[in-house]
Amino acid sequence: MLHPNQLALAELQQLKYVDLHTLYEKQRTKDVYSEELQELLKSLQQKNTHSSNLHLNIAKYLEQIEVNFINEHAINDLVVDIAIPERKLAIEVDGPTHFAFKSREPLGHTVFKRRLLHSMGWTVVSIPYWDWNNLDTDEDKRNYLKKVISPSFY
Questions:
Q1: Chain centroid to CA 153: how far?
Q2: Rounded Cα distance, 147 and 141, in Å
Q3: How high is the pLDDT of residue 86?
Q4: pLDDT at residue 94, rounded to an integer
Q5: DSSP 106
Q6: Which three-class secondary structure string do you get for 23-52?
Q7: Which ranges of 1-149 does DSSP label H, i.e. alpha helix?
Q8: Shared domain check, 108 and 97
Q9: Which residues are bridge partners to 99 per DSSP?
Q10: Which pLDDT score, from 0 to 100, does residue 19 have?
Q11: Which residue ranges of the chain lie beneath pLDDT 70?
């Protein structure tokens, strides 16, 4: 039998997604993992909280438009890039690794994460790197964020 400590971080993340899927989309009523594996799954949020330069840049502009948010926020152990908890709004900063090669088609893990967040009652907004990189001025970036996070926010 495979011991939880033998699993790589990516494998643990996949198990976490399956855990959340069975809990929120299949309405699982009991724990199916050992206590040790559950602890490893919970520890993922501490091990995998790196913000990209793109993410940090977007956060800087959210501060400029006075949005109260949390970077690298855990929602039931699933970490989102930026969260506005009082609105249940998750902002995912999607760089090239979230999309198929030379494509704007999101990869399976990105789609699955969005679906899990929706099943938990969160609205998910994606900011793809090509949108952000095409904005020329500071004002363009602030206006883009205002539009993306909803006109009703202001």
A1: 20
A2: 10
A3: 93
A4: 96
A5: B
A6: HHHCCCCCCCCCHHHHHHHHHHHHHCCCCC
A7: 9-20, 35-47, 53-64, 108-119, 129-133, 138-148
A8: yes
A9: 106
A10: 77
A11: 1-7, 9, 29-34, 36-38, 40-49, 151-154
CA distances (Å), origin 114, targets 1, 5, 18, 136, 152:
32, 28, 13, 28, 22
CA-CA-CA-CA torsion for 113, 115, 121, 122, nearest 10 degrees? 50
- 78 and 129 fall within a common domain: yes
The answer to whether the CB of 148 falls within 8 A of the CB of 125 is: yes
Q: What is the pLDDT of residue 92?
A: 97
Written as six digits, the tokens of 93 are 């900063």
Whether residues 14 and 79 fall in one domain:
no
Q: Residues 4, 43: contact at Cβ < 8 Å?
A: no
**Does 5 share its domain with 40?**
yes
CA separation (Å) from 149 to 39, 47, 56, 124?
A: 34, 28, 17, 10
Same domain, 22 and 77: no
Number of folded domains that form the chain: 2
Q: Is the domain of 43 the same as that of 74?
A: no
Instruction: Determine the structural domain holding residue 149 and report its residue range.
Output: 51-154
Q: Are residues 62 and 88 in the same domain?
A: yes
Which CATH number is 142's domain given? 3.40.960.10
